[in-house]
Amino acid sequence: MKYLEKSWAAAGSGQKKFLASILTYGLSKKLKRKDFEAVNESYIDLKDSNSEQPDVVVYDLNNNFTPAIAIECVTGEDLPSTIRSMEILSGLYHISESFVLDIEQFKWYRISNNKVESNSYSRFFSLDLKEVLDTLIQRNNRVSASI
Question: Is CATH 3.90.1570.20 the right assignment for the domain spanning 13-146?
């Protein structure tokens, strides 16, 4: 069997997908499921299949499935443009908080009220996203080590 010499996936895409999926899982466990739904790579506007698809969207089920928060994982080189895109999306869709995670530096950026700050704490959910992700990564590492 021959193997491809070059991956079709962009650099870091596997790590990005892994982090987004475990973050979605962690949020689904932490949030009130009757009020919020965390979804991996979903449309920011469920009524528009041409809308953007952040890595994680948390929908407010009591407010017609509007996005409560959106999270995008990104490599460092795409950080400035991604932050700008998330600022625009936050304004267009009235998202109270958006987050960008630089997966190379593991640094979080919070976007709220047209301000960008280095912060992983969601005021909307009173929850530190970095802690949610770190806890799951540590648990995954323990399981992997025991296999």
Answer: yes
